[in-house]
Amino acid sequence: TGGAILQVKETQYAAPHGFNNANFTKINDAFKVDMTAQQANSSFLVEVMINVGSDHHDAGCAVGFFDSLKGDSGDANAFPPISARSDVGSRTKVAVVGHWSMGSSDNTENHSQMNYSFSYLYTPASGQQSTSARSFYPCMKRNTDNQQLLVNYAQNNEGRSFAGVSYIRVMEIANSVVG
Can you tell me the distance from the alpha carbon of 154 to that of 161, in angstroms, rounded to the nearest whole number? Predict the structure, then answer.
């Protein structure tokens, strides 16, 4: 049936750890959804929520996801590239901004922690359409300030700070709905 949801899978990820990569990188090898498409030409609705704190007020990041049939590092981020944009000056070009840099606001990192969510209707390129097993991984990259991001927790270990949970949910959708 056109547009039918063929399957839904979700992984919740609660492990707290630091993250400091200048290129798009999997957040963790265990933070993924494994899926074997029922139809080769399916689309996938990918929903991700990442809980991020930081150890410095200049830390910032961008988020995305990898499809293992396309690649699982660096420029294989499944979001369409926006590198052709010329109207953004010297800003880093990304599709989804995650944790924002707070500039010169001292000590805001002590308790700051945000949930960054996105959803994206993803149709793999013709060379990656397949009923082979694939994995979807949330990914991030930090900004140019080289500060550590904190996945699933805030910097200070006290009652005013929190520990959180992140997730990825993927729905396979019969492709005739996309057009």
Answer: 6
How many residues in total does the chain contain? 179
Residue type at position 15: A
CA distances from 10 to 108, 114, 132, 137, 139 (A): 32, 20, 19, 11, 16
- Give the global pTM: 0.84
Q: Across 23-165, where does the E strand assignment appear?
A: 25-26, 33-36, 43-54, 61-67, 96-97, 113-122, 133-142, 149-151
Distance of alpha carbon 148 from the chain centroid: 16
Helix (H, G, I), strand (E, B) or coil at 26: strand
Helix (H, G, I), strand (E, B) or coil at 174: coil
Residue type for position 25:
T
pLDDT tens for each residue of 122-170: 999 888 899 999 999 999 888 878 888 888 887 777 777 778 899 999 9
